[in-house]
Amino acid sequence: MTLALVLLCIAGLVVLISVGKLNAFAAFLLTAFAAGVLLGMPLAQIPKSVEKGIGDTLGGLVLILCLGAVLGKLLAESGAAQVLAAALMRAFGTRYIQWAMVVTGFVVGIPLYYGVGFVLLVPLIFSIAHRYKLSAIYIGLPMLAALSVTHGFLPPHPSPAALVVQFHANMGLTLLYGLAVAVPTIVVAGPLFARTLKGLAARPLPAFAAAPAPAALAPSTGNSLFTALLPVLLLTLAAGYPFLAGGRLPYQGTVALVGQPSVAMLLAVAYATYSVGLRLGKTMPQLMALYAEAIKDISMILLIIGASGALKQVLTDSGASAEVAALLQHVALPPLLLGWLMAAVLRACVGSATVAGLTTAGLVAPLLLHTPTNPNLMVLAVGAGSLMFSHVNDAGFWMFKEYFNLSVKDTLRSWSVMEALVGLMGLGGVLLLNHLLT
């Protein structure tokens, strides 16, 4: 009976978002209260569980997400991301233009949110396609595959960062494992798959072209690259430092502090404020205005993540999560595969990768307490599942269709298949890593 009620609540959440077109934040809150009532919680306890869930979830994420948004805004407004893209194009040349697109999307996608990276890099795709008489799909899809993978697999992006918190995983190890899974996934879903679409005609709309940042005002290539990758470098250093020289190197405590996600992001933003801000002639009031704009950009993401934590807490406090976990232990599927499948089904229903991943987390988290599943790999499994089945209820689907001026059929043939390949390759990589680590 408990499982049926949980499934009813999830179905209600899906209906509210996909059919009722209700904002995911409001849908999560309504579902959390409804779940508390249906699962027999004392009525006075439900608001307390909702508040605790929001607080616990956002407590470890607010700094990471807000600072990440500020860093992305600084890189975008300073022209640093465009500088990186142009430098990579010069380095790779026209013969390896697809690989230049992949590396550009990957480098830019690590610090930027998907939507920002998409809008920033699409004009570059169109200009290159025009200059070299190439299909915009052929050179653009590899870049967007890289953006999608960084969004779904790699912290500090919202969904994987939230999953790290909910599964009590290690941010640095998750990032390292995520990089190992991301590379082959991008190769297959990007350049290799795009080669099958050379004949797919795309007619990008001129209205979507954006004016590049003035070259004289942009930062140098080295400065742009270091600033963009600084959070990743700090997290990677902290993850690998204890293993160097048998853990006998000095300053272990300092490196551990610097490698905390919130500290790494704070240091990166502080450096970016100088390197692509003050150093280039921007005033502090101008930079603080960018800070404010960046926080506004992700305010709804924060609310949705917090509300997803409310539903998770209600399921936990009511005892439903423990009962569902006990039932799922008897399902003839490995936990990693089960987490991937749940996220994939929810993605198909809801459309949002973030919502699918966060909803799955509330149901799968108890399994980690009863099985020897690696929590870092579970983050990646759920992330991979949350990228499956992108279709007409996904905002990314329509962004791709409209920017590239494609029919729905051709968008399904290109974008939707690419996302499915990302999800399947991600699952394969997670299962292979799990085999190697156990």
From TrEMBL:
<keyword id="KW-1133">Transmembrane helix</keyword>
<feature type="transmembrane region" description="Helical">
    <location>
        <begin position="58"/>
        <end position="76"/>
    </location>
</feature>
<protein>
    <submittedName>
        <fullName>Gluconate:H+ symporter</fullName>
    </submittedName>
</protein>
<feature type="transmembrane region" description="Helical">
    <location>
        <begin position="256"/>
        <end position="277"/>
    </location>
</feature>
<feature type="transmembrane region" description="Helical">
    <location>
        <begin position="134"/>
        <end position="154"/>
    </location>
</feature>
<feature type="transmembrane region" description="Helical">
    <location>
        <begin position="26"/>
        <end position="46"/>
    </location>
</feature>
<keyword id="KW-1003">Cell membrane</keyword>
<feature type="transmembrane region" description="Helical">
    <location>
        <begin position="377"/>
        <end position="400"/>
    </location>
</feature>
<comment type="similarity">
    <text>Belongs to the GntP permease family.</text>
</comment>
<keyword id="KW-0472">Membrane</keyword>
<keyword id="KW-0812">Transmembrane</keyword>
<feature type="transmembrane region" description="Helical">
    <location>
        <begin position="336"/>
        <end position="365"/>
    </location>
</feature>
<keyword id="KW-0813">Transport</keyword>
<feature type="transmembrane region" description="Helical">
    <location>
        <begin position="225"/>
        <end position="244"/>
    </location>
</feature>
<dbReference type="Pfam" id="PF02447">
    <property type="entry name" value="GntP_permease"/>
</dbReference>
<feature type="transmembrane region" description="Helical">
    <location>
        <begin position="420"/>
        <end position="437"/>
    </location>
</feature>
<feature type="transmembrane region" description="Helical">
    <location>
        <begin position="96"/>
        <end position="122"/>
    </location>
</feature>
<feature type="transmembrane region" description="Helical">
    <location>
        <begin position="298"/>
        <end position="316"/>
    </location>
</feature>
<dbReference type="InterPro" id="IPR003474">
    <property type="entry name" value="Glcn_transporter"/>
</dbReference>
<feature type="transmembrane region" description="Helical">
    <location>
        <begin position="174"/>
        <end position="194"/>
    </location>
</feature>
